[in-house]
Design brief:
2 domains, Rossmann fold, six-stranded parallel beta sheet, 10 helices, binds NADP nicotinamide-adenine-dinucleotide phosphate, alpha/beta, three-stranded parallel beta sheet, globular, 284 residues
């Protein structure tokens, strides 16, 4: 069997096009959606990612401010900036880019992002609301997992999904979103015994670990669907996932590519969340 490719490009384009239409409607009604990205690092790959978000935002009619506090920023400065942006009526979405300066905890900082502007679900309160079934923005990457599966009409109700990784950014919120779609979810992590036995029992495997090639053909059952969230830089400047695509493609029914899978849907959802936040602000 050669797995079919569950591309993220088409769902991302569909989300971007809906977002652009909604942004234009809001702008003509007097509210230009605005996203602020707070940066406190000199990390080059982070700078590249932030520039790509700003470009993508502008393409759909969202104004984007990059607020660069520099790699020496103190936690108090970061928190104050997030609070100021949360109170600024012209800003609708606030993202805190990682990594942060040594000793500064991302979750502590994200508590300062007001939950109605927390378009990347970084505030722990947003995760709590998500878990409780209350309205909240989910972290875009976790939501991208579900959206890419839905776009490609992968049934989730009653299916067994194994999520590998339990971070607050991807694994845990993905679990709640999958439960909301009536999947039966197993969560795996670094202490899971016999990972291959657990993931091989699943209909869908979501890999969100950050280890090149962790998920091999031995980890999937014939006909499984595999979502690769991993984005691991290679020595030659490329990007690879957590899934050993060559071996898994011989056994699985479908697999998301890296790059071109979860990544583009993630960016599109950040923009979509920003427009939703702008719409809510416009109505209030
Ligand atoms: P993270 O915070 O480092 O969490 C990694 C998770 O993987 C942890 O829960 C860890 O378990 C688990 N793990 C580590 N080694 C394992 C092993 N051998 N077997 C099973 N589980 C293992 O990473 P993250 O922020 O969730 O990111 C995960 C991946 O997604 C990374 O490659 C990241 O670059 C990528 N990512 C992609 C996007 C995108 O837009 N495409 C966005 C965000 C992240 P413990 O909890 O036990 O330590």
């Amino acid at each position: 069997m050669t797995a079919s490719v569950l591309s993220g490009k088409e769902p991302a384009a569909a989300i971007r096009s809906e977002t652009a239409a909604e942004a234009a409607r809001l702008a003509s009604a007097g509210t230009v959606p605005r996203l602020a990205v707070v940066v406190a690092t000199a990390d080059e790959s982070s700078a590249w990612y932030v520039r790509s978000i700003a470009r993508a935002a502008e393409q759909v009619g969202i104004a984007c401010d990059i607020v660069d506090l520099g790699p020496e920023a103190a936690g108090r400065d970061i928190r104050d900036t997030l609070e100021r942006l949360s109170e600024d009526a012209s800003v609708h979405g606030v993202i805190l880019q990682t990594p942060l300066p040594p000793g500064v905890n991302a979750q502590d900082m994200a508590l300062a992002i007001r939950f109605d502007k927390d378009v990347d679900g970084a505030n722990p309160l947003s995760l709590g609301r998500l878990a409780a079934g209350l309205p909240a923005f989910a972290p875009a990457t976790a939501e991208a997992v579900v959206r890419i599966l839905e776009h490609h009409r992968v049934e989730l109700t009653g299916r067994h999904v194994a999520v590998v990784g339990r971070s607050t950014v991807v694994g845990k919120p993905a679990v709640h979103l999958l439960l909301d779609r009536n999947a039966t979810v197993t969560v795996c992590h670094s202490r899971t015994k016999d990972l291959a036995a657990v993931t091989s029992a699943a209909d869908v495997v979501v890999a969100a670990v950050g280890r090149i090639g962790l998920i091999t053909a031995d980890h999937v059952s014939p006909g499984a669907v595999v979502v690769d969230v991993g984005t691991n830089p290679t020595d030659d400047g490329g990007l690879v996932g957590d899934v050993d695509a060559a071996s898994v493609a011989e056994k699985a029914a479908a697999l998301t590519p890296v790059p071109g899978g979860v990544g583009p849907v993630t960016t599109a959802l950040l923009l979509s969340h920003t427009v939703r936040a702008a719409d809510a602000a416009h109505r209030s």
